[in-house]
Specification:
Layout (H helix, E strand, L loop, with lengths): L3 H64 L7 H44 L5 H55 L1 H7 L5 H8 L6 H13 L8 H13 L7 H7 L5 H157 L16 H15 L9
Helix pairs in contact: 1-9, 2-3, 6-9
Length: 455
């Protein structure tokens, strides 16, 4: 187990390096994909902006051709629109210059921060300076975003109001188009206004229709009188607060008008005031109703937008949750794979160590066997050498004894003559025992020694 510890540590380190390198590669790949997606999105946005810009230029060209034509019959009315457009264009240019100035200031601050970060100094003053610059840039960006958010909210409100007004005008135009066939026939007649009112009777308040019909029937807003007489009548009547005592003074101021004319005009004026008040009240109620309907429509639209936004958020949250679960699942798979690889690597290392240990054990055994055989052979050679030395010494001693015996024999023969056949060559030949030992030593010396290669 002690031998497994370094193996496992080495395997874990190697897998960690591989996982870090694979994680770094995956991070670079994701960053590259994100950059490509942002670049494609930016190109698509620029293409859409260019297309909308071309459409806007064509629309402005058509509008200028119709509205600002000097030969147009409505040149006086359209001049107001032209002045309004000019003022709005100037306002847009000023707003654009202001936005560009703010963005330029933020960009300069960012460049200054980047320049400071190129020469980093590990001092508290430098860190505090960088922190202040970052806070300044962040505050400028947040202020710019908040201003733009408020502007866009105001524009959205104005857009909603314009859309509602346009829808009302479209309804009126549709109603006019329905009554255009009959209106064209009677447009030049005095009673043309009554015909139009009958067409719009179902879409205008009853009090308004009654007031308009009363004016058409009685000669307009002055009851058939001219402006001078009518103003004098109103002045005297207001002076006497509607009492009948104003009649004498009215006859003096209104020369050419009889008492019956003044009384009849007074009755007309009383009815005119009543109908006018009813009309004002009806218009007020109608405006309130329209405002309520507008608010109700806005609320319904906001409610629908809120529901759509909530659905979108729920779908976005579900997608995020699904992506997170997928990421966790992949991470768990990777962790299992890492563990399996660590175990497999550890087992492989253990097997390798076992094989090396067996090989080393075999080498040690072979080396021990070689040493043992060498020692045995050396011992055997030493014994043989000692044996040869002993034999040589014995032979030397024997030769000495033989020589002494020969000398004794020669001395003895001098006294006693004995006739014996002598073989002098036998003295120089080795004995039979010595010949056998010499053959054994030659056989032992001729055997090859066992050699084992050491690692």
């Amino acid at each position: 187990m002690a031998a497994l510890a370094p193996v496992l540590a080495a395997a874990a380190g190697r897998l960690q390096n591989e996982s870090c390198s694979s994680s770094a590669g995956a991070g670079r790949q994701f960053q590259s994909w994100k950059t490509k997606a942002e670049r494609a999105k930016k190109v698509e946005f620029i293409r859409t902006a260019e297309k909308l810009k071309a459409q806007l230029a064509n629309i402005e060209k058509d509008r200028n051709g119709h509205l600002y034509n000097r030969k147009s019959d409505f040149r006086v009315e359209y001049r107001l629109l032209e002045e309004l457009e000019h003022s709005m264009t100037v306002s847009r240019k000023m707003e654009k210059a202001k936005i560009l100035q703010q963005l330029s200031k933020i960009q300069n601050n960012v460049k200054r921060l980047q320049q400071q970060l190129k020469d980093v100094k590990p001092t508290p003053e430098f860190v505090e300076k960088i922190k202040e610059m970052m806070e300044e840039i962040e505050n400028a960006i947040n202020a710019f975003k908040e201003d733009q958010r408020q502007i866009y909210q105001q524009l959205l409100k104005e857009e909603k109001a314009v859309i509602n007004e346009l829808s009302l005008f479209e309804r009126k135009v549709e109603l006019w188009s329905l009554g255009s066939s009959t209106a064209e026939k009677v447009w030049k007649l005095p009673s043309a206004r009554v015909t139009v009112d009958k067409t719009l009777e179902n879409h205008l308040p009853k009090e308004v229709i009654e007031f308009e019909r009363f004016l058409q029937r009685t000669g307009g807003r002055q009851g058939g009188w001219d402006d001078y007489d009518h103003q004098n009548f109103l002045k005297i009547r207001t002076k006497y607060r509607g009492r009948l005592s104003y009649m004498d003074e009215a006859l003096e101021y209104l020369s050419g008008r009889t008492k019956e004319d003044i009384e009849q005009h007074d009755k007309w004026y009383q009815e005119y005031v009543v109908l006018y008040e009813r009309k004002k009240e009806s218009i007020k109620k109608w405006k309130e109703k329209q405002q309520q309907e507008k608010e109700r429509n806005l609320k319904e639209k906001e409610k629908s937008e809120k529901m759509l936004r909530e659905r979108w958020l729920q779908r976005e949250e579900a997608q995020k949750q699904k992506a997170e679960e997928e990421r966790k699942r992949k991470q768990a798979t990777v962790e299992v794979w890492k563990k399996q690889k660590v175990v497999a690597f550890a087992i492989d290392q253990v097997s390798q160590l076992k094989r090396e240990e067996k090989m080393q054990q075999k080498v040690r055994q072979s080396h021990m066997k070689f040493l043992l055989e060498r020692n045995t052979l050396q011992k055997k050679v030493k014994e043989e050498l000692e044996k040869l030395e002993n034999e040589k010494r014995e032979e030397t001693e024997k030769e000495g004894r033989k020589k002494i015996a020969a000398e004794e024999i020669s001395k003895f023969q001098e006294h006693v003559e004995i006739r014996v056949t002598r073989d002098r060559s036998r003295l120089n030949r080795p004995s039979k025992g010595r010949e056998e030992r010499r053959q054994e030593m030659a056989a032992a010396a001729g055997e090859p020694l066992l050699r084992v290669s050491q690692r």
